[in-house]
Amino acid sequence: MTHDPASPWSGRRSQARFLPAAAAGLMVLAVAGCGGGGSAGGTVSSTVTIAAIPGVDTAPLYLAQRDGMFAAEGLTHVVIKDYSSATAELSALANAQADIAASDYGDIFYAQAQNADLRLLADGYDATAGVLEVITLPGSPIASPADLADQSIGVPDDQVLPALVGSGHPISLDAAAATQVLSNYLGNDAETITWVPMSQQQEITALEQHRLPAVLVSEPYIYEAQSEFGATEVFDVCSGSTASLPLTGYVAMKAWVKDNPGAVADFQAALDKAQAEAAMVGQVQQILPKTTGMSAEDADLSTIGTYPTSTSAIDLERVVRLMSDFNMIKSGQAPAVPLMIVKPGS
Questions:
Q1: Residues in Cβ contact with 175 at an 8 Å cutoff, skipping those fewer than 6 apart
Q2: What one-character-per-residue DSSP string does 34-103 give?
Q3: CA nearest 174: which of 291, 4, 322, 19?
Q4: How far apart are CA 239 and CA 139, in angstroms?
Q5: N-term to C-term CA, the chain
Q6: How far is CA 51 from the centre of its chain?
Q7: Which residues on neighbouring strands pair with residue 88, listed in sequence order?
Q8: Is the peptide bond prior to 220 cis by the omega test (within 30 degrees of 0)?
Q9: Are 154 and 198 in contact (CB under 8 A)?
Q10: CB of 134 closer than 8 Å to CB of 233
Q11: Would you call 220 helix, strand, or coil by DSSP?
């Protein structure tokens, strides 16, 4: 889902869902301490640090910063700090280097299963058709999902769960969703796929150079591969039982939430407005070139998912079940999603 945050914008391919922001003006780069207290809904004077990997899914965060929504709600000092992976973001939360993280749900629920004590402040980004696809080269012998048994497929590396690499289980939420769809065609052989983690830019290059038969990528890499060398879709990763799958959300440590009710309430209010604004035609496409470095053309032609303005425990439990079904979360350790959700105004 995100990828190659360490590499500079190449000018040839976009850095889709998560890359370092290109526009420093959208980030307040400060070295102030992490969040402070404040009465719910009141002005928060301390700095609130938000960990994020700029991209399509986190676009509302930058809209909120650009349009002064945080300040309007009482968060007068907000730092948006970029990280290279979801694992790094959650580590920053645990080490009090960040207060809130915009992170992948696979990493969030895996960490919670390991007793991370996270709380969900808001749902961030849900899939729609075409936002995640397994693609191949034109004329490839991979003509359908049934042809992928025993193959090696590229997968974005920014949300890979290190403990699962080599386990025989899907190594990320993207890989789990793809495996679920593949099981409709391959049955148990869906788990014979070898997932090869790399940045999305590296995935596209590996596909183009015939080093991998297929890759799993998000927008705008799907568009790039199709326009540059005629790549074709093998299957939509978020379809059937994985349609509309929640992909990323905003989390904080339980202790920070308890100590900072004002900051939590202000963040939720500002993000809710930003999520609604992001749903307006052109808003996300307008900000992506500034935050990710992708071209205006890529931004305009990329398929965009949805930005929820409420958090559904039922929808998020689909992610937990998916991970549990593929033994990414051990039996008996599945997080209790409703207990994680911080309701606005609570």
A1: 155, 193, 195, 216
A2: S-----TTS-B-S-EEEEE--SSTTHHHHHHHHTTHHHHHTB--EEEEE-SSHHHHHHHHHTTS-SEEEE
A3: 322
A4: 24
A5: 31
A6: 12
A7: none
A8: yes
A9: yes
A10: yes
A11: coil
Tokens of 299: 């931004």
**Domains by residue range for the chain, with CATH:** 24-126+245-340 (3.40.190.10), 132-242 (3.40.190.10)
The candidate with the shortest Cα–Cα distance to 297, out of 218, 187, 191, 220, is: 220
- Tokens linked to 130: 């075409």
Exposure string of 308-329, with b = 16+ CB inside 10 Å and e = fewer, is bbebeeebbbbbbebbbebebb
Residues near 256 by Cβ (< 8 Å), separated by ≥ 6? 34, 35, 93, 99
Over residues 159-166, mean pLDDT = 90
Predicted TM-score of the model (pTM): 0.87
Residue 172's closest CA among 239, 85, 263, 240? 85
Q: What is the pLDDT of residues 99-148, one digit of tens each?
A: 999 999 999 999 999 999 999 999 999 999 999 999 999 999 999 999 99
C-alpha angle 148-175-335 in degrees, rounded to nearest 5: 145
CA–CA distance, 257 with 264 (Å, rounded to integer)? 7
Of residues 54, 135, 129, 103, the one with CA closest to residue 303:
129
